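Tutorial, part two.
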Amino acid sequence: MDKTNHSLTGLALQKFRKNFWGVLSLVFIVFLVLVAVFAYLLAPDKTQSANWGDLAIHSKPPGFTVNMLTFPSVEECKLSDYFVGKASGPEKIPVLKYSVGKDSLTYYEYTDEPSLAMARTIPLSVFGKGATAQSVKENNISQQQFILGTDSQGRDLLSRLIVGSRVSIAIGFVAVFISLVVGIFFGAIAGYYGGKVDAFVMWLVNIIWSIPTLLLVIAITLALGKGFWQVFVAVGLTMWVEVARVVRGQVMSIKQMQFVTAARALGYRNSRIIFNHILPNSMAPVIVISAANFASAILVESGLSFLGLGAQPPIPSWGGMIKDHYNYIILGKPYLAMAPGIAMLLLVLAFMIVGNALRDALDVKSE
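Running the prediction step on this input gives:
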């Protein structure tokens, strides 16, 4: 006879580990979170919002390579630059061809029509005292490759994609946190006290639920103003109703159990009974619905960005990138819109799979 004592949490973790797709999706989410946190370490473009671009190289295909002339920068590198990016990067010019003489550098700025390229000559002293032809070739002229190409403004698409992951992932965490705080509070008091309190909370839930989510988010966003954090708050304030309904049902069921009756007989305060005894035993479905709300928050933010109400330029977001480039789908360059679209699809799919895996792991009736 197996006398090993397993907690419910331990059993749930064991069942979750056996779900290959659930574990793989969780690893993928953790990987994207790390990518978002260290975005400026990974992104080729280190400027804030990965906003450096040159219209001469706009809408270039993946793998595009160009010679880049870089001028010296006096800006010192700070620790914060690795997390928020550099306020302004070094001045760079894409060049078609160049020649370095003894005292000067002659270059042709990049253009799609080589015959229209204009020649410019600058002294080598621009690159610092004692600069030589060899040092300029080695330190100031290099080939730069754009792995995913460039967008309509000539910015590195890969860098924008990496930095843009911060918005989608951050809104998931912030919106779900707000929805949990508000939803658990209203759901707990409605389920525990019942009567008029329950009727009022359910009336409020039904009113909010009857309004289309995107329309309600737009209304809240317009009331709070356009901005980065306003969108997060607006999305969170529209997602708490689902949490409240689930928590209300759980609390109404659990408050009839004997351990709650015993807590009342011992004279415990209602707040202690709710937060110390009832809510810890009703969190399983809340965890599952939170994973689904992560995915919903990402999609809602993308819709707002597509409508121009999400994160405002130059802050990159996947929804905003799709908005800027969706017309390129019929112009022979669909990758400009498909790259952020595929990234969003994978992230939302990962959250949904994790939610399903958690549901199976927390289901005590399953084998």
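The beta strands are 64-70, 92-100, 104-109, 119-123, 141-146. In part three we will examine how such features are distributed along the chain.
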